[in-house]
Specification:
alpha+beta, elongated
Length: 466
């Protein structure tokens, strides 16, 4: 069976690449909801193209109010759901290999936003089903591919789907790494606010701003300063660049000086892989010889709790780790600071030891000392499926058969589509240890890895549903 599956996929490699590119060409980061587009026009267009693609291949399709589409194969009794998504995170203007929505195949890699997260894996799963169908392998139970449109911004699509349908006995998401992820950390997503009277004493900060999505380490930020000499600011920027790794540029903006910061984007669950432009900007700001004011003091207090380069929450007093889930990570990803108030947001992926008392309350109390308010929030629970379950044992066996490598279970800080499902795990599609630049510039997926993944998924479908 292995030879037949791999041969079929090899024959249809070019077709699979073009189908991935069809979806990648559509910009599908979340927008404002509209009639028929609950998560914006981009995700809705991607879903419509996927519906067209799947119908061309002869599969039945059910569209759940333009939130999720379902593609079925096999019997009527549910056996396996595969959960992938068509929405993407926003892009920067710093791509070098190609533009984000102009996909290319170069040196065995598919470049473009969504090639790795998650349009490439979604199409790989579809081709796994197409392989099983083409080889006329009977399935007693049903495999269902769900293609959603809101994974990056809260999974409101799946909430809508599961309000209408029951969870399958087993679920997998091809939106992570192999071998298999059976533990996804819980955590805390917090927003803080502060207000203060405007103080016009110079020099002062007029504005600091950066970050667009809570689950993305920001790659850009900017500030506007009043009443400071340009040379002094440039010297401070040179020092901050040496200390942070970010790139700083100073320009004149009328009577103000503007500072632009360029970092390196990354997923908020792995903040150490990026260079956080927001925390780099904050580090610069608190180092400047500015007039003492209530707002500046509060900014300094927040910067002390979330300093640049502290990804573990040590400064905030919440660093913890355990053998099963690993260490807590903390990423300060959004900042909007002005002359009368500011708002900041952080994304924490926590050890399974974390709870409201030892995580949320610690941060809340430290912020309160500086007169900064942590908005109501709560630690969300981790997701864990024991390694000895039949689903995991079957998936590991498929992985080992097609890769020749020993399979094992791993834990991650990211939350996938299966985080709230009783018997769901993340299974592929990327090779462990390969940086696909997910959520960053020049995102890519390896073509051979996508083909291998499709073969593994095909075998899993057969073993679970056959």
């Amino acid at each position: 069976m292995k030879e037949k599956i791999t041969a079929y996929l090899a024959e249809h490699k070019d077709e699979m690449v073009e189908d991935i590119f069809r979806l990648v060409r559509i910009r599908s980061d979340r927008g404002e909801p509209e009639e028929g587009a609950p998560f914006g026009t981009g995700p809705a267009k991607a879903l419509a193209e996927a519906v067209k693609m799947v119908k061309e291949k002869g599969f039945p399709v059910k569209n759940y109010d333009n939130c999720v589409m379902a593609v079925d194969l096999g019997g009527t009794e549910p056996g396996l759901d595969i959960l992938a998504h068509l929405d993407v995170v926003p892009v920067s203007d710093s791509w070098t290999v190609t533009q984000p929505f102009e996909p290319v195949l170069k040196d065995g890699r598919l470049y473009g936003r969504g090639t790795a997260d998650d349009k490439g894996p979604a199409v790989a799963a579809l081709y796994a089903m197409q392989t099983v169908k083409a080889l006329e392998i009977p399935l007693k139970k049903r495999v269902r591919l769900l293609l959603g449109t809101d994974e990056e911004c809260g999974s409101g699509d799946l909430e809508h789907y599961y309000s209408k349908e029951e969870e399958a006995p087993a679920s997998v998401s091809p939106d992570a790494d192999f071998p298999i992820i059976n533990l996804e950390k819980g955590g805390l997503r917090g927003a803080m606010t502060a207000s203060y009277p405007e103080d016009k004493t110079l020099p002062r900060i007029i504005e600091l701003s950066g970050g667009t999505k809570l689950n993305v380490v920001p790659d850009k930020a900017f500030g506007r300063i009043e009443g400071m000499e340009k040379g002094a600011l440039e010297e401070a920027c040179r020092k901050a660049a040496d200390e942070t790794g970010a790139v700083f540029a100073v320009s004149e903006e009328g009577a103000l000086l503007r500072v632009d910061v360029k970092g390196h984007g990354a997923h908020a669950s792995t903040p150490g892989e990026g260079i956080n432009a927001v925390t780099a900007l904050m580090k610069l700001a608190v180092s400047l010889p500015l007039a003492d004011s209530e707002g500046f003091r509060k900014l300094k207090a927040v910067e002390e709790l979330f300093p640049h380069g502290d990804w573990s929450g040590k400064a905030a007093g919440v660093a913890m780790e355990d053998e099963l889930s690993g260490a807590t990570t903390l990423s300060y990803d959004i900042l909007h600071y002005g002359v009368t108030g500011f708002k900041g947001e952080f994304d924490c992926r926590a050890s399974i030891l974390a709870n409201d008392e030892n995580l949320r309350d610690v941060i809340r109390d430290e912020l309160a000392k500086a007169g900064v308010t942590l908005e109501p929030c709560a630690v969300f629970a981790p997701h864990y499926v024991p390694a000895d379950t039949p689903l995991i044992q079957t998936l590991l066996r498929c992985y080992e058969e097609y890769t020749g490598e020993k399979g094992r279970c791993i834990a991650i800080g990211g939350g996938t589509y299966v985080h709230h499902l009783k018997n769901g795990v993340a299974f592929g599609c990327a090779k462990e240890g390969v940086d696909n630049r997910m959520h960053g510039d020049d995102e890519f997926a390896e073509l051979d890895q996508l083909l291998l993944s499709a073969a593994i998924y095909a075998q899993a479908i057969i073993d679970i549903c056959g």
